Amino acid sequence: MNSSESNARILSSAGTDHIGHRAAANLRYIRDTIDAVQTFTLVPGRGCVWMGLVALLAATLELLPEFAEQWLSLWLAAAVIAGAIGLYEMAEKARREGISLRRSSATRFFMTLAPAFSVGAILTAALLDTVPRDVIAGIWLLSYGAGLAACGVFSIPVVLIAGGAFIGLGAVTLTAPASWSPMLLAVGFGLIHIVLGFLVMRRYGG
Hints:
Layout (H helix, E strand, L loop, with lengths): L2 H35 L7 H18 L2 H4 L2 H27 L6 H24 L5 H20 L4 H19 L5 H24 L2
Helix pairs in contact: 2-4, 2-8, 5-6, 6-7, 6-8, 7-8
């Protein structure tokens, strides 16, 4: 084999490798683009129902005299438990459907929730000792609703509707008597979650 033939083969092999790398890169770009515009469907229906039941339990306990003064600790504990349940059920749903929670649509869902939750936490810490109980409850409902509504733009439609319901309920809570707060929190974090969960299970699986 002369040198010209050897060089031709080397150039041909290099060209083939270059084309292969470009094709692989293009396929990755296409997959990422499709994933970026996909609707997030991993909202856990079963998890939402359980989250609602936890909230109903917290609201019931708050009505008891021995827990009335511990309302903040009670609801914070309920939030941690409900959040853990929601994440677990979401991971289980993703596993059943063979979908990774690291995909861009899932990441976008969590990143959209984070600012609203952060604002709610900051306002609670700053205003806890200076505003009435009903204002804190209203802040929670409004913040949570804003986060859900933002996620609902690229998630399933019922999430956007639930977000709007939380926002409306939060507005009512700000003007309602403080004694109504446990009931309104039960309606929001309890009943709305449960209704959302059943709708998700019916239309999109558990």
